[in-house]
Amino acid sequence: MNTYVLSKDHLNKLAQELLTSGYKVISPSKDGRRFVSISSIDDLVISPNLKPSAVSMKEFFFPKTETLFYYKRSKDEYDLIDAAEENHPQIIFGAKPCDASAIPIVSKVFNWDYKDEFFNKKVENTIIVGLACKFADENCFCTSVGLSPISEKGSDLFMIPLSDNNFACKVITEKGEEFVSNHSSIFTETIDEKSINTNDIKIPEKRFDSKEVKAWLDKNFNHHLWDELGENCLGCAQCAFACPTCHCFDIVDEECNHTCGRRAKNWDACQFEIFTKHASGHNPRNEQDKRYRQRISHKFKYYTDKFDEILCTGCGRCTRGCPVLTDIGIILEDINQLAKESISNN
Amino acid sequence: MKQLIDISKELFESKKVGYIIGYAEDKFKRVKPFVAHSSSDAERFVFSNYSVNNLAVYLTRLLKPKESKIGIVAKGCDIKSIIALIQENQIKREDVIIIGVNCNGVVNQIDEQFSKENTAIKCKYCQVRTPAHYDYLVGEIKDVDLPEDKNFAIMQKLESMNAEERWNFWEAEFEKCVKCYACRQVCPLCYCEQCIVDKSMPRWIDSSATVKGNFAWNMIRAFHLSGRCIGCNECERACPADIPLSLLNRKMGMVAMNEFNYRHGTDINQPTLIGNYNVNDKEDFIM
Amino acid sequence: METEKFEPKIVAFVCNWCTYTGADLAGTSRLKQQTNARLIRVPCTGRIDPVFIIKAFEKGADGVLVSGCHPNDCHYNTGNFHARRRWIFFRQLLDFVGIDSSRLYFSWVSASEGKKWVDVVDGVINSVREKGPFNGYKKLNKEIEIPVK
Q: Which chains have 3 or more CB–CB distances shorter than 8 Å to chain A?
């Protein structure tokens, strides 16, 4: 599969073609805080220097609220009506590796014991155009979870800046190859992959060893570290909702009026107090220390046990948005330190 | 802040407190909330222009059975929250030891340098740079370059719009809401054991993040805080969707001031506004 | 083609001890009144959280009426005083957010004021009929309604 050269003009032309042919074209917003569906090429933002958005792009695969089906009541019967099929082709530009890699990671749980067709259909209909990342701050740690600023995981096409106006665009998947051949008037100039210089893309140092962290988590369910972390955390869901890999959801029935309504799938978070509240009133995770332990353990132990993936891409959104600056990177570094100490003590 | 650390250590050593809630720096020198449990913990206390958090929220979330009192490092606006909690009988005055701090303004964006442009809008109107209530007072008052109030122009624009335009403005804002409840969790005055939005039988406010559910949630939260919000604006700072929540609370604060000449959190003995009534309250809108 | 004349839907939250009884009296006295109002009985106007009013508008009400005992006549002594103070805030909040607060009506109707009840309800219905339907939530409800094919 080839690598092509695209200029900013090419990209604008491509975006315009896609908008005209009915694609949903998604890019970071002008202020970089969200991913938005654009209606004009003036709003297309492709910049490797951008800080990760405040809220991830999972909205386009796993919306914050989604109808599973509608129901209509007539006398003693209920009619169930399927939710409208939304098979809009989508394309996402400017997805950093920490954004794009979340999709294959989360796909595993959405295809585990039950195939989530809502999620799968959207993934099928989306082309993810990854973009190499030139932004790094103290909150990121993609290199500690097996990724990097030039990781192609999850992207169908991957863009690397060659100069201010030109990008190399590498085809990664078959879906990407098909897309390229459907837009051959844009993808004309090829380039040898080996000639691409990525020296100006800084690869951050690893901050912790995820294997050592997991080994510590395997054995330290009752460590006092959790008490300290539980003290600061306020129990909002900012981290979970901003996170590209968090995927817990709540299913609710909502009535529109007394004869009809819908069943919806909404974002939920283990940090909410009522997340594990039983109908009896008992709540096994009744305090924040238990809830925070769940967050870390799910991401770095339980998900790895089940699916051999880390449920984290190191994007740092949770830290940047946390009202009390709970820094998951620092916590994992601390856990790594504790792991080293317990190994040397043994 | 040697004064602050000395006072805190003295409180621990004389066993006057079980723990003290304050600010400390993390590994990257960023200021965040920190709970000190001992004298040696207290060595980490700091206070600066980056001490944005309203620590009074921990008083309603961290309540543990305690043999002794809780200390809290607080700036003038935070102390209003503490006084508000006392007015509402959530904590007793004698259970908290307030270490008041002379404040020289706090940042708007915490990941950027403190400057005139990057100062919280609430600091422009602050009348409690030296807090009104405290058990100890630390720090020095310095001259502050007051920021511009960008929200004033927005409020004026809203007042001049007609109902449909206002509805459209708020519809666009609430469309972004993801129902993370960060606004509720950072608010010291949102201390209900069961929030109305979590009640499912009957369901008063849709938990889904539809525009309808978001409208109801944000309106009801603003209403439940009317006459109680002291204007710390932590809700707006915490919101990941950048919704201008402070406008709603500011409007309710103006109603409390204009109709009742009332400001919550200023007088510890004053009965609360919404919890009380006056037989002469106006009723020109009642048929 | 003659378009259907708009008939407003009014939801009335009424307190059990005064207004509801007054409405009952209007009924037993066979006083004529329009039928657009649906009554919801609460023990006292002090029970009303503004979320009820918002829910009424969400469900399609064009106007909402809240009615209780006169000041000093509350069965629970002070419920209506607390309610009155809340409404002073709530009306301004509604206006600020873009919901016309004049679609929300308040009245004091006692148990013996059957005639006043009829006048109040008719007045509200006529007033809302003039204002026209409340469309704000119609668009928002489409998000969760069964889509029309």
A: B, C
CATH number at residue C132: 3.40.50
List per-block mean pLDDT (blocks of 10 residues) for chain A, which spans 346 residues.
90 93 93 92 92 93 93 89 83 94 96 93 94 93 95 94 91 94 90 87 93 94 90 91 95 87 94 93 93 95 95 95 94 94 77
**Orientation angle between helical segments A102-110 and A117-124, nearest 10 degrees:** 150
Q: How far is residue C133's CA from residue C125's CA, in Å, rounded to a whole number?
A: 11
Backbone angles phi, psi at A211, to 5 degrees: -70, -40
Q: For residue A279, what are its two tokens?
A: 């109908």
pTM of the model: 0.92
Host domain of residue C29? 10-141
Q: Indicate yes or no: CB of A262 within 8 angstroms of CB of C59.
A: no
Name the nearest CA neighbour of B75 among B105, B34, B97, B45: B105
- Asked if the structure places residue C53 within a domain, the reply is yes
SS3 label, residue B26: coil
Number of domains in chain C: 1
Domain boundaries defined on chain A: 3-58+86-195, 210-250+265-345
Note whether C137 and C58 are within 8 A (CB): yes
Identity of residue A346: N
ipTM more than 0.85? yes
Distance from CA of A128 to the nearest CA of C (A): 27
Strand segments (E) across B126-231: 136-138
Q: Which positions 120-149 of C are in contact with A (Cβ < 8 Å)? A: 141, 144-147
